[in-house]
Each structure stands twice: as C-alpha cells, then as structure tokens.
Amino acid sequence: MSQEHMRASDADRQQIVNRLQLAMNEGRLSLHEFDERLQRVYAAKTYGELSPILSDLPAQRTQRAQPVGKPKGRVPQWIKIMWIPWVFVNALMVLIWLATGLGYFWPFWVAVPWGLALLIPTTIGMVVDGDDKRVEKAREQHGH
Length: 144
Hints:
About 65% of the residues lie in helices and about 0% in strands. The protein has about 140 residues and is mostly helical. The chain is elongated and about 75 Å long.
C-alpha cells in the first residue's frame, strides 16, 4: 500500500497548517487562499489529499532562525488585516469632523465601540499565539 493512501493524523494536518501560516506570513498566500487551503487540509483523510495543498509552495527550510509564525519584531498579518480598516475609517471620520466645524466629537462613537470589539479578538489571539510559542519552545528543549 503506497503512502498516498495512508490516513493522515491530526499532527500531520497541523504541520501542513503551520507551513500554510508561514507561507501567508511571507506573503506567498493571500488570506483568502490560506482559508481555502485550510478547509482542504481539515477535509483531507489521506497523505495523497494533503500533498497537493503545498505543491506550489517552496520546500520548508530545515534550518530556521525563529519558530513558525511572525518574525521577531513584526506585527502578525492577521492583526494588520483587522486594524488597518479601523485606522483608515477613523481617520476619515476625524477629517469629516474637522471639515464640518469641530463641533461635538462624534467620531468617538465610531472609534471606541469598534476599537473595543477589535481589542477582544486581538488580545485572545496574542495570548493563544504566546501559549503556542511557549509549548513549541518546551518541545524543542525536550527534543520532541
């Protein structure tokens, strides 16, 4: 029986997801492409269904300076995707407020609720990302 027909494990799928995340962070995949491939990863049952998902991406480097994820000192792409619209919409609101005579500061009612709504998933994402990095570091130290 060839390996293509062997059932893939959850750990195999997670390795593919990690490679896709790296490709997205490097700009090789858009968020839409990442999402499509992620759906294919979790629907795959065999190695043969998993291998085409990465076929157009470069091979993973064996020697890497940092763990999979965001490079040190850079903001993860998902945070940019969430917050950039907030910044531009609120800048527009402030410009409109300035152009209309500096009355009551109504842009507050756009910026604050939306900002608080974005702050919750951002905080959760950063905590989970930090936990993942601690687990990965512990695994590397124990040789797993």
